[in-house]
Amino acid sequence: MVSVKTDGYLVLRDVLSPQLLQQFKLWAMDNTNAHRGNAVDGTYYATHDGKRAYNVWWTTQPPKEMWMPIVWSLEQPINMFFDGVEWDIHVVDCITTRPHSQKIYAHIDTPYRFEEFSKVDRTLGVQIIIPLDEFTLENGATAYLPGSCNMKIDYRDLEEFRDVYNDMLVDSGTQFLSKPGDVLMYDSRTLHSTMPNNSNEFRSALLINILEKDIIPRVRELDNNTDFVKT
Q1: What pTM was computed for the model?
Q2: Sheet of 143-144: strands edge to edge?
Q3: Gap between the Cα atoms of 148 and 184, Å rounded
Q4: Residues 110-143: tens digit of each pLDDT
């Protein structure tokens, strides 16, 4: 049985309806909603110029009425990660990977990528991934390393030895093979990456980032690169 403390993740099936999935997919693929991304020229751009093509891109925040009921429905499993500490939604966006994009980028998520939170030994953040397309081996389903939330991976070590961590994910990680509307939820210290999309189709997902409520103002001061949830 999977433990959120030992393994650092949960998988839930059939959470989103087909109708809601279609709405998010339309949002993800609408170029006017692009916010930032890794362009086909190999450069990362923090803002979208309205015409740039990306290998991987993130959108602006979808309308709150689309995603807030999803968060409500996931309240109980989210609480399992935070041990009674109050949490709130930090960022909601969609991510899309272009066909034949080959990048692997093993990393940990907010807030542990910032120095002042990197050594905190408790769950400060939870990332939620909800596929809007089927996630398969061919199209590069997200890989994650169970239990890596307890490895105390430092963001500086990740920067210096990225290839080593990439190989660790390839050799020992688990890919989230799933249907549209399933949920992968994990401690933000979990090592993970999107994998190469060897299919001929775009692959999209809805992302929801949850943080311990008290740290959100400071994280937003540190992060000048994200379309935050509006309060």
Answers
A1: 0.95
A2: 174-175, 143-144, 192-193
A3: 15
A4: 999 999 999 999 999 999 999 999 999 999 999 9
